[in-house]
Amino acid sequence: MTSVAISALVFVCVFGGALLGLALQGLLPARHFSAHSKDLVRLATGLIATMAALVLGLLIASAKTSYDTQSAEFMQVSAKLVLLDRTLGHYGSEATPAREFLRRLVAALLERIGDARSSQPVPFAPTASAEHMYDVLHKLVPQTEAQRTARTEALGITRDISLARWLLFAQQHGSIPMPFLVLLVFWVTIIFLSFGLFAPANATVIATLFLCALSVSGAIYLILELDRPFAGLLQLSDGPLRNAIAHLGR
User: Fold this and answer.
1) What is the rounded CA–CA span in Å between residue 87 and residue 91?
2) Which of 6, 31, 112, 157 lies in the 20 to 30 Å Cα band around 21?
3) CA 136, 142, 147, 153 torsion: positive or negative?
4) In whole angstroms, what is the distance from residue 233 CA to residue 189 CA?
């Protein structure tokens, strides 16, 4: 499901819980609204609210960590692509085909990231052409010590880029544990049900509960968007990769 669909479902659950609480006011006997009953409900709701706050903080921290990690890895990939091109440039004119092949790989990666923002495929899925970079480098036959050093460094940089790409690929499915999210929504729904149970049924209360439910679903939406940095509202900029391709071959 998309982030919008999940957050909409959260809104329906939370606001529906509040409306259910308002509806139960006219169905439950008066003895259920005694002072002792209200105190007990408030204590139980406070306990659930504390647990919900802890889980919400955990989800936010997890999503933000995942976002920052993938952002750093993406910037490292972009920088190492330029470094690989510069290393091949020091190898000599014999490495020109390898540099041209590298530029085509980066252009293809940019296209895949653009597709990810429209149809949400996995932009960093390993491809045969990406792995072919090793074969291109192994075909180089060094004639001098400087060329041997450049070729060795180029292979090391290529290995680092491949590792970072595999890491980005492994992180595409997100880091948010779905059971945590389901449990959080369940707890918040109970809290809103208790709000509606003891609140007067008027337009001000309903509007307030509506805005609060909208805020909760918005928070869930932002968490899910942070967990998917290459698609959606909070997507990472492809600027580092575009800057990298602008410096390739120079």
Assistant:
1) 7
2) 6
3) positive
4) 26
